[in-house]
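Structure tokens please, single chain.
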Amino acid sequence: MTKKHKDYIIAVPIDPDREWTLDMLKRGIERQDHLPNKVGIVTSRDVFEKHFAHSGLYELAETPRENRTAEKRYRVPNIAYNRERLREWFIEKRDEELILWLDSDIELVYPHATKEMIEKIEKHDAQRLHIPYQNRPHKDYPSHGTGCVMIRREVTNMARFYRGEFIKDGEIKHTISEDYMYFATLQAIYNRDHQFEWIAEREKCKHALDFGDIKVVHHLDVYDREDRDYIDHLDRQLKKEGRK
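Here you go.
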């Protein structure tokens, strides 16, 4: 008898000026054996209609704020705003137990990826599971941020996405990304020793940093020959293993 896996949704914030990765994003999502109930997206209506309106799998959760064009592309405030709208959409309009955050330039490689993520979370009784991916700009070091992380609903509402600011002499000297602020808040809660003790016990297993055959591709630069060779290699490996 086939094992039934828990329902989940995927959340993807998309900069309307960054479309070249979206076919690869969709390819990774749609190749999954265990599809999400819905993929929530924050982007412009034009981008959504062009890339996602073909399938009921995708839903435009919200459009970016009006003043986004006045800010530098990829600025943390815009990203934080988009993530926070998706977090609210998951909490207020969905009832699945799990949310999988993906960046728009992340591609899930193997069809069993989301099934294995769910199995690992359940096996370790974890609150969240991070899948490492190639970092930007330090390509030799993996990142474990919100680019590919699955989180349980029960803790999703304990933190918010916003830009952290270090202010000195009335000026912003340093900023901290929205994912650092989000996970730092969760970590602080886990470290408490009274009413959240039950979470602290489960948090010991929260970091599932690399589970071998759960792989993702981080498309860092414009889709080039090097990327194509890598994808072709993975396709051959999948066929060899009988997974494609």
